[in-house]
Amino acid sequence: MNPDLEWQRRYEESDTPWDKGMPAPALVNFLRQQPISGRVLVPGCGRGHEVREIGRQPQTSVVGLDISPTAIAQAKNLEGPSEASVFDPHFTLLDEWVPKESFPGRENRELVRLMQKR
Question: pTM for the complete prediction?
Answer without folding.
Answer: 0.69
